Amino acid sequence: MTTPPKSHLFYQSRLRRPMLDQARGVYMWDLDGKRYLDGSSGAMVCNIGHSNEHVLEAMRRQMEKSTFGYRLHFETEPAERLAEKTAALAPDGMDKVFFVSGGSEAVESAIKLARQNAIALGEAQRWKVISRQPSYHGSTLGALALTGYAPLSAAFDPMMRPMPKIPAPRAYLDHLDASDEATGHHYADMLEARIRDEGPETVLAFIVEPVGGASTGALVPPAGYMRRIREICTKYGVLLIHDEVMSGGGRTGKFFAAEHWDVAPDILAISKGFAAGYVPLGAMVAKNEIVENVLDTGGFLHGYTYAGNPLACAAGVAVLDEIERENLMENATTVGAELKAGLNALMERYEIIGDVRGLGLFLAFELVCDRDTLEPLPRELNAYNALVDIAYDKGLIIYSRRTRGGYDGDHFLVCPPMISTSAHVGEILDTLDASLR
Ligand code: PMP
């Protein structure tokens, strides 16, 4: 394996992986020439596949002109075009786009805009942002305060203000029927109870991943949940923030996952698939009146130096064009259905698979000890690492986490790029089959 014996780099652990050489379409190659199928699109990022020629060409063209213009000195055409396209994709009345360079920054911006809107409205007593347990909203201290995953946040509790959490719906673990609206209302009503407990006049916002990502493994909310959440937020004047950093960008078959329930938030956070791994890029999109309120009363006290740079925005425009031109959301729906059927077929053969779930090409399966009780595998088994490593050796990249519904559990996200074909699905399923065996 071609990995330098000594490295000056560090990330979260001592884990070493081979050196990446090139990536094309759904495949990646290391320096030894070994090929991997990117079955998780990085971390649900590279939605349109690697090295897309249209995107590279758009980036080359922009690079020849300018790569950076500071936002207080210049407006740029790529930023204007990307904002226009993003606003067109967002729900009606959300025409204001604020660029950032990643998901945590998008969430951070959403919290700060919500807070400044409350102050502008004379409601400075509203500051609590309710979130869910488990959830993942980012690694900056503000976004981490909303993240419902103690192993990541506990060490920093004294340095930030942990926010109130309500349980994320987990119908499959509670043996409730997710297609029954009563189930969705059961979980959504926990939000109303919590708002009342906290004192509605102190609650600023509620943040939710419309389809859970790393936290719950493509867990789709039960029927009725997203609508009821919207109604509750409106009733108490609480802003609804959709964190579509992972679920947005088209892989569920709609550009924003919340479109599946025809529900619009007040503020949206997007990143990952938005620029599909070509550049660091994200955005916060908000209702017009919120932005107007804040800009009218002293301005938005927030910003990032690299935000909205023309190179990133030119790549973003090209990514959105490609999704449209190649009908990639339709493909995610069709190919996603094939992949889900294949995962269900694996579940029939392997007792150890306790659940298969997701929408479009945002899919996951979960390993359990006992399919009836859904008891998780013992933590010491380290299954979430083991299966990923076995598949990796066999040339398939999948993404795992050990958290589910508030308890331990091993889930695996299988989210190949939206350009995947039936042949790629076959290859993923064959490799998973061999890995599970
Ligand atoms: N929100 C969600 C739902 C995410 O999945 C992530 C990243 N996994 C983030 C926020 C943070 O994004 P980033 O790592 O780009 O800061």
Q: Quick recap of the structure?
A:
Pfam families: Aminotran_3. The protein has helices spanning 41-44, 53-65, 77-89, 103-120, 141-146, 150-153, 181-198, 225-236, 288-296, 310-325, 328-349, 383-393, 422-436, and strands at 20-24, 27-30, 35-38, 96-100, 128-133, 165-167, 203-208, 239-243, 267-270, 282-286, 353-359, 362-370, 375-376, 396-397, 399-404, 407-414.
Set down the secondary structure blueprint.
Layout: E1 20-24, E2 27-30, E3 35-38, H1 41-44, H2 53-65, H3 77-89, E4 96-100, H4 103-120, E5 128-133, H5 141-146, H6 150-153, E6 165-167, H7 181-198, E7 203-208, H8 225-236, E8 239-243, E9 267-270, E10 282-286, H9 288-296, H10 310-325, H11 328-349, E11 353-359, E12 362-370, E13 375-376, H12 383-393, E14 396-397, E15 399-404, E16 407-414, H13 422-436
Parallel strand pairs: 3-14, 5-6, 5-7, 7-8, 8-9
Antiparallel strand pairs: 1-2, 2-3, 4-10, 9-10, 11-12, 12-13, 12-16, 15-16
Helix pairs in contact: 2-10, 3-10, 4-9, 7-8, 11-13
Describe this structure as you would to a colleague.
The chain is α/β, with parallel strands linked by helices. The chain has 2 domains: 20-51 and 327-436, Aspartate Aminotransferase, domain 1, CATH 3.90.1150; 57-325, Aspartate Aminotransferase, domain 2. The chain is 37% helix and 19% strand. A hairpin with a 4-residue loop joins strand 2 and strand 3. Helix 11 (328-349) runs parallel beside helix 13. The radius of gyration is 21 Å and the shape is globular. The mean pLDDT is 95. The structure holds 4'-deoxy-4'-aminopyridoxal-5'-phosphate. The site of 4'-deoxy-4'-aminopyridoxal-5'-phosphate has 15 residues, from helix 4. This is Adenosylmethionine-8-amino-7-oxononanoate aminotransferase. Pfam families: Aminotran_3. Keywords: Amino-acid biosynthesis, Aminotransferase, Arginine biosynthesis, Pyridoxal phosphate, Transferase.
